[in-house]
Write a structure and sequence with these properties.
By secondary structure, the chain is α/β, with parallel strands linked by helices. About 35% of the residues lie in helices and about 20% in strands. α6 links the parallel β4 and β5.
């Protein structure tokens, strides 16, 4: 499968990239700084336990990953840059974060019609638990309810905009909605639930979130759904 990965240099995106390359996918990335992405991959390959974790000699992976990865330089806010990176792909994973701007919602507004025009149906995005439904007040999003401990709702509002845009689209989308998201390795010990956060979920590692996001390329259980993920 050929994938476009957006947000490939981020905390979760870089781990999704490793899953995709490890499993033989051809990956397009659109980044502002190709040097940063290449440096991150080099650091990964040079880690002492790399060969053990990835089951192949590091030198073989180095050569194979270079062939699989296609790095496009540009901005997710430029339609022509996105269109170039989309050429020939079968699915898109977006791990674009909220950085205090409206980049996430604005880029989604550009991306959706491009995907529809190109006939690319599958879109997997990383959201936030704030846009899941509240358990105690089901008519509200979590970020609007007493379940939320965050003082600022800016990030949740950005993710809500993405969700509402996707509801109006014809795409086969899935929004993965992690709760508190510290850096951490894949453990496989996580729970997921459609539209709400698993009960008493308090955190989820970037490693487990990346693993679940990658798995959605083959799993059609959560099409056009939000999925809460927690430990």
């Amino acid at each position: 499968m050929r994938i476009l990965l957006l947000g490939a240099t981020g905390r979760t995106g870089r781990l999704i990239l490793q899953h995709a390359l490890r499993n033989g996918h051809e990956v397009h990335t659109l980044v502002r700084s190709p040097e940063k992405l290449q440096e991150q991959l080099l650091q990964t390959i040079q880690e002492p336990d790399f060969a053990k974790r990835y089951y192949l000699p590091a030198e073989e992976d180095t050569a194979r990953w270079k062939e699989q990865l296609h790095i496009f330089t540009g901005s997710v806010l430029e339609p022509n840059d996105l269109l170039t990176a989309l050429h020939g792909v079968d699915a898109v994973i977006s791990a674009i974060g909220t950085d205090g701007s409206d980049t996430l919602s604005a880029s989604t507004r550009i991306l959706i019609p491009l995907l529809e025009q190109q006939g690319i149906q599958r879109l997997i995005t990383i959201g936030t638990a704030g846009i899941l439904q509240s358990r105690t007040q089901p008519e509200l999003f979590r970020y609007q309810s007493s379940e939320s401990k965050r003082r600022s709702t800016r990030a949740a509002e950005e993710h809500r905009s993405v969700y509402e845009q996707l509801l109006q689209s014809s795409l086969d989308w899935t929004i993965i909605c992690p709760t508190y998201l510290p850096d951490g390795d894949y453990t496989g010990q996580y729970r997921v639930e459609k539209d709400i956060l698993p009960e008493d979920g308090s955190r989820i590692s970037t490693g487990d979130t990346a693993h679940f996001a990658y798995q959605q390329l083959q799993d059609r259980q959560y099409l056009r759904s939000r999925v809460g993920i927690a430990d």
